[in-house]
User: Fold this.
Amino acid sequence: MAKATIILDGQTIEIETGGKAILETLLDSGHEPPFSCTSGVCTTCMAKLLEGQVEMDVNYGLDEDQVEQGYILTCQSRPVSDAVKLTYDDVQ
Assistant:
C-alpha cells in the first residue's frame, strides 16, 4: 500500500491508496477532485506528480511533453513507489 500526499484546493490530504487509482481513492474517501470521463481521455483529473512514481494504466489525453514535465491522469495512475506527492492546484 502506498501513502499519497495530495494537494487539492489548498488542502493537504494524506491517504493510503490500497492499490487503487489515485482518483478512485480520493472519491472513496469523500473528497471531490476534478474528474469527468475516468477513462484517460479528457484530462480533467490531471495533476502534477511532485515526488515518487506512478504507473498510468492508459494515457490518451496527455502528450509526451506533459508526461515528461510530471503531469499524470489520476484516474489512471497507481503509485509504484512507497509514497507519492502530487498537486491538483495550479495545473494548467
The chain has two helices and seven strands. The helical segments are 22-28, 64-68. The chain has a mean pLDDT of 96. Residues 3-87 form a domain with the Ubiquitin-like (UB roll) fold (CATH 3.10.20.30).
